[in-house]
Amino acid sequence: MFPVISSRCLWWGRLNGQHFQHVHIGVGDRAELSRAFTQRDVVAFSELTGDVNPLHLNEDFAKHTKFGKTIVHGVLINGLISALLGTKMPGPGCVFLSQEINFPAPLYVGEVVLASAEVKRLKRFVAVIAVSCFVRESEKTVMEGWVKVMVPEDPKS
Fold it and tell me: With a threshold of 0.70, does the pTM exceed it?
């Protein structure tokens, strides 16, 4: 298989020209996903990962921190980006290669967070995507950064 990159999309084709696949991803493409995490989500994540930091689970502990109450795990927030990239854009079959993320503000249980992604660069089978998670109600960014993903290859190859 060989990649052909246009200004808006990535194509695959066999050298013998028998078939092509058009992957709907291009520089400037955007996708979004929103969700509010519940305390049950935070507890389930803690049980699955073993991250039982009381900052996420114990209101009495958390009220004495600079956050004033429990906060959602940053990696759980980052999971929204994984869901967004794996289901919407680029979609099924994409694989995280690397990421650089920051958490400038906390996300509290019950706040609706909007995860956004925008393709900034596309080179061969790798897309560089700017990502962020934003809480509209309080106008705060709770996560931002960059992700590199491998765009899925033609499953027939």
Answer: yes
Residues of the chain with pLDDT below 70 are 1-24, 153-157
Are the beta carbons of 45 and 72 closer than 8 angstroms?
no
Quote the pLDDT of residue 4. Answer: 37
Could you identify the residue written with the tokens 């650089």?
A: 100
Q: Which residue has the tokens 């400037």?
A: 28
Q: Give the pLDDT confidence score for residue 119 in this predicted structure.
A: 94
Crossing angle for the helix pair 39-49 and 74-87, nearest 10 degrees?
A: 90
- Give 70-90 pLDDT, tens digit per residue: 999 999 999 999 999 998 988
Chain length of the chain: 157
User: Token digits for 123?
Assistant: 């080179």
Classified as helix, coil or strand, 113 is strand
For the chain, helix (H) and strand (E) counts, in that order, are 4, 8
Burial state string for 67-94 with b = 16 or more CB within 10 A and e = fewer than 16: eeebbbbbebbbbbbbebbbebbbbeeb
Distance from C-alpha of 112 to C-alpha of 110, rounded to nearest angstrom: 6
pLDDT at 94: 87
Does residue 63 contact residue 69 with C-beta atoms inside 8 Å?
yes
